[in-house]
Amino acid sequence: MEHIEVAIVGAGPGGMSAALTLAEEGVEVAIIDNNPTPGGQYYRQTYINNTTKKLKPHQQEGVELRRKLHDSKIRYFSKTNVWGTFEQKILALDGPGAPPALEAEAIVLATGAFERTIAFPGWTLPGVITIGAAQILNENNVSPGKRVLISGTGPLLVVLASELIHAGIEVIGVLEGSNLLPRAIKHLGALFGQKERLKEGIGSWISLQKHRIPYRLGCSVCFARGEDHLKEVTFCHLDNDWKPIPGSEETVSCDTLCIGYGFIPFNALSVTLGVEQEWDPFNACYIPKRNMFMETNIKGVYSIGDGTSIGGARLALLEGQIAGVAAAQQLGKSKKHPEKYISGIATALSRERRFKKMYTDIFTPGFGIYELSEENTILCRCEGITTADIRRAIDLGADTSGEIKIITRAGMGDCQGRMCSHLIANIVARETNKSLLEVGQFQPRPPVFPVPIENLCLSVDKSAGKMG
Amino acid sequence: MKSMKTTCKYNAEVAVLGGGIIGCSIAYNLARRGTKVILMEKSLIGCESSGCNSGGVRQQNRDSRELPLAMESVKLWENLESELDFDVEYTQGGNIMPFINEDELDFARGTCQKELEAGLEVEIWNRSDLRKRAPYIRDVFIGAKYCASDGNANPLLATRAFGWAAKKEGVTILSNTKAESIEIHDGRVISVTGVDKKGEIVIVEAPIVIHACGAWTPLLSETIGLKVPVQPLRHVILVTQRMTPFFTEYIHAELYGEMAKPALTSSINQKEQIGIGIRPARQGHVHIGGISTPDTFDQSAPADAIEYLARGAAIMMPALRDASILRAWSRQLEYTPDRLPIIGGVDGIAGYFLAAGFSGHGFCLGPIIGKLVTELILDGEASMPLHDFRFSRFQENGGISIDERRLVRA
Fold first, then answer.
1. ipTM
2. Which of A2, A3, A86, A380 to mutate to test the interface with B (most CBs of B within 10 A)?
3. Closest Cα partner for A211 from A251, A153, A168, A255?
4. Which of A131, B97, B290, B301 qualifies as a FRET site for B113, CA 20 to 30 Å off?
5. CA-CA distance, A113 to B336, in Å (whole number)?
6. Distance (Å) from the C-alpha of residue B343 to the closest C-alpha of chain A?
């Protein structure tokens, strides 16, 4: 079995940062990543070797990190899923060129987050896509649509709008669910030292203004219509709890609706490893518990970045450094003292944590947004399970996500409930008058990603001879 | 000073411990005959082996003492959906047991003869029958034993359907309540004491207690000084992504030697033999179950087990190579020394009945056991003999008789 000192899962900002920190200390490192090239979602933009376009500062930073990674001795397994664990420090891999199993002395989980979508009537229509999907299409010079409406929450809405405008696509409006001004004032201090973020934000904002694109606060899509493709969208105002206000609806015509209501940490692998989890009340999901050195309750297993708690790329970079220094010291490879290292970056850390707090406070959707789905709205897209199906299961006595899953098949599909877990938990909590903690989330089961039997056989065919 | 815990008191004619298919079926049948029943379950209905098993409803290749129960139970399964008013995805799609060598063929012939005598319709397929009847099974198999009236059901739903039906019949279900002790007075059961999720004490006063806690049975029976010879066993199950359905049968085979060699295993201890069961679920998913790890309550599904089972299944059915494994879990089975269940009372403890130790064959038997145990309690005698399953067999002279060959398949 192949052996490595530290295995890092995920090559986003956190994973790359941890890898480079470890490599600098002379630690033997492998990064396992399911993307074709390193960068994760944040630096994904740098895919395109478009030399004519001037790179944004963070793209430049991504290019720089990737160059360092390339020049280092770090092993990089691309297009590779970590689908499970054999024993606590042996990872099961599935990817071209990757060994079937990799034994590590320490593991850094930098698995990132996935987009939070909200269910409303019509959200499964072709033409309704996530913000991330729109960005990927646009970066690859594929136009996501002709007339685009953006709805959700967070700075990404404005960033996407500006990117689409630059590509010559008509953006008819941006609906920000948060009524952010009153909340933002409290957090003005959190913007201190966030020069790059402010610059990008203001730049995007200016392009919105220049093109007279309406930016509406406290609004959200509530209905999407069309026969076989999106034709029109109805949006409404939200109250302070993000509950739709009846009578405030307006309808616009468009062919594309981009939605994004923040992110949910991807904790499935840490659960599979047996890492102790704690309840994250904001995201209504379990997240890995860890100490100040990013180490979980399992010695030598670290968890960093958005896969643990949504804090953005800058915080992930710092957490990667901390985990790197701590793991290197634990392996006896470095004399750097993790505690001293943390004091050394204390200013940057507290700046990013302030920003994280601000982001969470302003851009976490209120529970009212879950009232958008109607009886026949599909919640679990993989299995086609509607609100009515969930209600029938509740009538049979189900009052936890686990029981709902068993009775209705919701969350049993290919995505393992990544998309619908929070939608269903919120409906169950509301209908049964229970807290989200009591309702819980779908229990992630191995394999973390569907794994082709063919690939399992290949690894065996090689080692055990051709099968009978 | 220790704070006083709140106590909840209930009384019933019968307390059933364990919300698996056995406990739920017993509670349902008792309540239908007008008995006041309280069922205590440590977590939720159907959360352990009754809900997480591979869903086979099988008669063939059972111990000859168990076969009549299975045959009677299948008759009940045939009407179960209308009786419980719930679609439990029961299908009589058949059961195929392909074999790979002459030795197995000889054994199958013998079993087939005995089963035919017992009234079960089974057939032996030779190599060309197997190719014709089940072309999706790899041609390394030289023949098969087949039972058309065997089938499968969705265990998650079937067990719950019994629970819901019991509730409708008036059974009080105390879920998330763990039975911690059984109280005895003057040689008679008087009550069961448990603890619920909030830490509150729950006391159920009942003159009759039915103990159907599967692998956990011995832990509680110890509180009345009874050693029940039931051991835990872990079984791993995988499910593939949806495939276009291409077979209806539950298929079970043993692989030997090179074919059964695990590639990367470290934790799995198999002696170059692996038994694999494959079930076609209603929506096109294929369930693959096997690998028994004895004496553990660990319910994880490690990657080596997933890899080993997936590969074994692809050896049996090449078309599975095109599928992906979607999920894996393990189920908590239990086994007795002779792989037969323990059903009935215990000398010296009036009112205490065991219905445990089903050794991985209990799912199919659920419906009939509910009926028979109800008869045993209300009529004093069951309509089918349960003598072979008496608890006292473990203490008697001569002890138990074990069919070694069948143990492997268990």
1. 0.86
2. A86
3. A168
4. B290
5. 47
6. 29
